[in-house]
Design brief:
The chain is α+β, with helices and mostly antiparallel strands.
């Protein structure tokens, strides 16, 4: 019996939120690689645990700005969150990859029928969420980044 070689899995695509007055894209860029800590929602924690080294994520400014401003890459897979005083919480390390030439605002995403079922719109309070390949490509195109090597999903 012949066995097919396993195809490599496509890297995951995610969106991570940060309040820019607490931790901004500029701070992420300045630090290079930074622990993504402080997630205290079980669904978001499980998404962190599902991330694999090399996965990509949109960096989204929540509360102030409400827009996707950059791309980060998972540099270290889930480990116990060092900021957690109690409970079973996880963190990952994220590395700044690229700023978006045109940030994509929440209002534009909500107005776009192609993004109607985007997790950010359906579950707006979740701080870490998966992004479907079609949504990833579409958001990259809106950001003027569809020619970038990381824009393919």
């Amino acid at each position: 019996m012949l066995r097919r070689a396993a195809l490599p899995l496509a890297p995951g695509r995610w969106l991570v939120k940060s309040e820019p007055d607490a931790f901004s894209w500029d701070q992420q860029v300045a630090n290079g690689t930074e622990p993504w800590t402080g997630v205290r929602n079980y669904a978001a924690r499980n998404h962190l645990r599902a991330m694999k080294k090399g996965d990509l994520a949109f960096f989204y400014h929540s509360n102030v700005g409400k827009e996707i401003v950059g791309i980060v890459q998972v540099a270290r897979e889930a480990y116990p969150d060092p900021t957690a005083e109690a409970g079973d919480w996880s963190a990952v390390d994220m590395r700044a990859l690229a700023a978006l030439a045109r940030p994509v605002g929440l209002a534009a995403m909500k107005a776009d029928p192609a993004l109607a079922d985007l997790a950010l719109i359906r579950q707006s309070r979740l701080s870490v969420m998966p992004i479907a390949p079609a949504h990833w490509r579409h958001l990259c195109a809106l950001a003027g980044a569809d020619g970038e090597p990381w824009a393919a999903a």
